[in-house]
């Protein structure tokens, strides 16, 4: 035991992000990045950077980019918050909305960061197990200080019914954080609940549909008091000067985002058919990744074999996840290479 480190931190293993392998021939389908090119406006801004400006701190309130968010969602500036990726926002929500003896709810399986964030804050967790179809039934009288509701869910890729979410929000006594990281690939969003109910935060990211994971920008929309609480506790300059400006122009260029997401959805449909033909059970995806159960020799062996061939997908150990693979939708070419390799591995 290292006496210099908080006991709870010593005891935890920490979040394990997907591998970031380097190399030219690698096919990286393991962290749900988007292989399409972001808005051309982003490149223009990068070409015009005045390095002298970089000597100054960024706007602590991120006003210009928040104006773009407010306009996009037709809400007030006071309903918007900008963060260093949506992961930062999820962490801030715990710190702002949970008492020391509070509890943190989320589905199992869902985004594996939530329990880690709870551990960091030494908060008790109250996960709700999804059923065998990855759908939910809340235990009667369920309560927690905060509930992270990932929609569409990860890693299962499926969208939960909006009506069911609204009914849950109405009954739930704490804050519901709807994590819509993948929603631009889905048929509907719950954004309207962010201003309709005072206990809702809807979190978004530019890492997926905007193909900008590298700039680290996320945002959320919610009732003014909740948003004000997040502003109180954030780092003064949590979003860099460059990121604020790149995110602003990307958000204003909805056309590029829509073109990117529709290309991803097209590839998603193709790869779904190919995987089904290879004997995979594919869950209906509303995201930029596919959650699928492979045939024999099973998920872990196929994951290892693909990795030996420099194709990286994601396998999560655990009773609810170990039989499936999570495969990010890459370019058509990458997906065809994946299919060819799977054919070889499966002897088809
Ligand atoms: C469900 C979910 N929420 C949030 C995030 C984090 O996104 P960001 O890159 O904005 O931190 C991810 C990233 O993979 C995710 O899967």
How would you describe the overall organization of this protein?
The chain has 348 residues and is of the alpha/beta class. The chain folds into two domains: 18-37 and 255-346, Aspartate Aminotransferase, domain 1 (Alpha-Beta Complex), CATH 3.90.1150; 40-252, Type I PLP-dependent aspartate aminotransferase-like (Major domain) (Aspartate Aminotransferase, domain 2), CATH 3.40.640.10. Helices cover 37% and strands 15% of the residues. It is built from twelve helices and twelve strands. The strands form three sheets. It has a seven-stranded mixed β-sheet with strand order 2-8-7-6-5-3-4, with helices on both faces. It has a three-stranded antiparallel β-sheet with strand order 9-10-12. Pyridoxal-5'-phosphate (PLP) is lined by residues 32, 85-87, 111, 150, 154, 179, 181, 205, 207, 213, 218.
């Amino acid at each position: 035991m290292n006496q210099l480190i908080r006991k709870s931190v010593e005891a935890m293993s920490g979040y394990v992000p997907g591998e970031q392998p380097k190399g030219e021939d690698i096919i990286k389908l393991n962290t749900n990045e988007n292989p399409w090119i972001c808005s051309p406006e982003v490149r223009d801004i990068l070409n015009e950077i005045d390095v002298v400006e970089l000597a100054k701190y960024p706007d602590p309130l991120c006003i210009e980019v928040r104006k773009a968010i407010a306009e996009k969602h037709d809400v007030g500036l006071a309903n918007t918050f900008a963060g260093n990726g949506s992961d930062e926002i999820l962490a801030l929500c715990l710190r702002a909305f949970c008492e020391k003896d509070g509890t943190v709810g989320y589905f199992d399986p869902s985004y594996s960061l939530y329990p880690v964030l709870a551990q960091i804050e030494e908060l008790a967790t109250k996960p709700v197990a999804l059923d065998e179809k990855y759908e939910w039934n809340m235990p009667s009288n369920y309560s927690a200080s905060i509930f992270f509701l990932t929609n569409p869910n990860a890693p299962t890729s499926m969208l939960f019914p909006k009506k069911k979410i609204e009914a849950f929000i109405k009954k739930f006594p704490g804050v519901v954080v709807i994590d819509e990281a993948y929603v631009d690939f889905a048929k509907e969003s719950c954004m309207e609940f962010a201003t309709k109910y005072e206990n809702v935060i809807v979190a978004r990211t530019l890492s997926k549909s905007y193909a900008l994971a590298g700039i680290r920008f996320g945002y959320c929309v919610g009732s003014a008091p909740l948003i004000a609480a997040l502003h109180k506790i954030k780092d003064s300059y949590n979003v860099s000067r460059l990121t604020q400006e790149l995110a602003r122009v990307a958000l204003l260029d909805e056309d590029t985002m829509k073109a990117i997401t529709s290309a991803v959805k097209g590839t998603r449909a193709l790869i779904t058919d190919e995987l089904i033909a290879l004997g995979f059970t594919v869950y209906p995806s509303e995201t930029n990744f596919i959650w699928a159960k492979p045939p024999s020799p099973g998920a872990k062996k196929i994951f290892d074999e693909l990795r030996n061939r420099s194709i990286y997908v994601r396998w999560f150990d655990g009773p609810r996840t170990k039989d499936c693979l999570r495969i990010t939708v890459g370019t058509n070419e990458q997906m065809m290479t994946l299919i060819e390799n799977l054919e070889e591995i499966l002897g088809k």
